[in-house]
């Protein structure tokens, strides 16, 4: 039986399961941390920010929390350029943080954790030789689902676009790569981008981490969350 023989609900369920499997087991949020919150999350006001759920998950080390919380983009780029931080450690920190966020609010569509870490190590090797690819050398970056990234899907929340793997990058993605960025995840968007909330039939609704009964808007709701 091919995916085309399945109902659209079965295809969506399979896609979501595949996405979950890409999150390493050691990056999973313990079930007991979510049990105190009212469910279903999308129908009840829960605040993941003030309760410090990311920190309590213990997925990130103290250094990784520092990297993802205490640096501006400008500061990260500077630290990456002079070697105070490596792309490998910064990329790993942001991949882990994105994985936690996904489990809490459903903000991602595609994850490229392994590929991102491989590119980060490559960029670190270049920096050790005194070479910088560009002004964003080693910086992890997320992109919205509507942009094509070779080897992933760009469904924009449309079931009809599932199972269509991108064979090339969107121009913006190529520009980011030429500037030295590391593409690590794709983020959720409204179906066809034509709505003010990030909700679609493929990935569902992205929740607002300040109040899970609300959504973070669109079309950059996944990015915002």
Automatic annotation (TrEMBL):
Domain Amidase: 89-225
Keyword Transport belongs to the record: no
InterPro entries, per the entry: Amidase_dom (IPR023631), AS_sf (IPR036928)
Keywords of this entry: Hydrolase
A Pfam family recorded for this sequence: Amidase
Record keyword Cytoplasm present: no
GO molecular function, one term: hydrolase activity
Source species, domain of life: Eukaryota
Annotated family: Belongs to the amidase family.
Descriptive protein name: Amidase
Organism the protein comes from: Aspergillus sclerotialis
Upper lineage: Eukaryota, Fungi, Dikarya, Ascomycota, Pezizomycotina
């Amino acid at each position: 039986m091919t995916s085309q023989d399945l109902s659209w609900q079965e295809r969506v369920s399979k896609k979501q399961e595949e996405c979950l499997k890409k999150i390493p087991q050691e990056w999973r949020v313990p079930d007991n941390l979510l049990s105190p919150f009212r469910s279903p999350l999308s129908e009840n006001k829960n605040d993941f920010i003030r309760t410090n759920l990311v920190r309590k998950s213990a997925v990130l080390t103290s250094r990784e929390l520092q990297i993802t919380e205490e640096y501006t983009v400008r500061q990260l780029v500077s630290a990456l350029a002079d070697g105070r931080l490596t792309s490998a450690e910064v990329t790993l920190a942001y991949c882990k943080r994105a994985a936690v966020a996904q489990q809490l609010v459903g903000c991602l569509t595609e994850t490229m954790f392994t590929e991102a870490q491989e590119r980060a190590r490559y960029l670190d090797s270049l920096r050790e030789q005194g070479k910088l690819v560009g002004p964003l050398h080693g910086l992890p970056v997320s992109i919205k689902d509507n942009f094509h990234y070779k080897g992933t899907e760009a469904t924009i929340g449309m079931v009809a676009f599932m199972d269509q793997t991108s064979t090339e990058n969107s121009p913006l993605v190529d520009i980011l790569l030429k500037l030295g960025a590391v593409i690590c995840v794709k983020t959720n968007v409204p179906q066809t981008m034509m709505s003010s909330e990030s909700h679609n039939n493929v990935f569902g609704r992205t929740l607002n981490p300040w109040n899970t009964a609300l959504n973070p808007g669109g079309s950059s709701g996944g990015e915002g969350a």
